[in-house]
TrEMBL record:
Pfam family, one: DUF772
Organism: Silicimonas algicola
The organism's place on the tree of life at top rank: Bacteria
Domain Transposase InsH N-terminal: residue ranges: 1-49
Protein name: Transposase-like protein DUF772
Organism phylogeny: Bacteria, Pseudomonadati, Pseudomonadota, Alphaproteobacteria, Rhodobacterales
């Protein structure tokens, strides 16, 4: 059913269940008979936050797909590109707290699943330890989400899915979720490069990315530690007036 949702572009799992219930072609694809009951939409959430996460099944399926692409010669391994996008959360701005009024104790008092996961990632380089700077607002219902206006629109709470892509046929080699903040995205790019080499034995000759990845630390890591040629614009701070470079 999820494959149908991804291919057809049905983002709502409730809507997906309704469409599978009514569409005979969808039922056939899912091997559901006319009298078979369609799973409730809540089943996806329970499995996603339970069995799928604990077993690592989604990662196994993803890597099996990449392996198939390798066998079909869809991946060259010569050059990669890396970038991040934004996934808005359902967190409500009106129920958030200003950073000054936030502390881990608030999350402990909340006690929901998102708060527990936030507490578990306080020292994670992709989340709590990504930056010492605090966001302007923190959502009590989803404190790990980042308050951002990176797309020059109205600010909102979001996460950043990071993608490492082989440029031959645009095959996604790895994915890593982080806070929607530059430091976390840069760290995710390094994690994905390391993991791709460990898992598939592939290290690209060059890497393309935008200016967000153009810090001296990241460029030095790519060239000196990994031997990767960066096609990345350097972050220009010459226009600063606060005495820093």
């Amino acid at each position: 059913m999820l494959v149908i949702g991804y291919v057809i572009g049905i983002r709502s799992e409730r809507r997906l269940c309704q469409d599978v219930h009514l569409n005979l072609a969808y039922r056939w694809f899912c091997r559901l008979g006319l009298d078979d009951k369609v799973p409730d939409h809540s089943t996806f959430s329970r499995y996603r936050h339970g069995k799928f996460r604990e077993s690592g099944l989604l990662r196994q399926i993803f890597e099996a797909t990449v392996e198939r692409c390798l066998k079909e010669d869809l991946i060259s391994g010569e050059g990669f590109a890396v970038d991040a996008s934004l996934i808005p959360t359902d967190a409500n701005k009106s129920r958030s707290l200003a950073a000054a009024g936030w502390s881990p104790d608030v999350a402990r008092a909340t006690g929901n699943r998102a708060a527990r996961e936030y507490l578990e990632t306080l020292d994670d380089a992709a989340f709590g330890a990504a930056s010492e700077s605090q966001p302007k607002f923190v959502a009590k219902s989803d404190p790990a989400a980042q308050w951002t206006r990176a797309e020059e629109s109205r600010p909102y709470f979001a996460y950043a899915p990071n993608y490492l892509v082989d440029t031959k046929c645009s095959v996604i080699m790895d994915v890593e979720g982080t806070r929607a903040i530059r430091q976390a995205e840069v760290g995710a790019s390094q994690t994905m490069l390391d993991r791709t080499e460990q898992r598939f034995g592939i290290c690209p000759e060059w890497l393309a990315a935008d200016t967000a990845y153009g810090s001296s630390e990241n460029l030095g890591w790519l060239v000196k530690k990994r031997g990767i040629i960066p096609f990345i614009p350097v972050i220009d701070k010459t226009g600063r007036t606060d005495g820093t470079w």
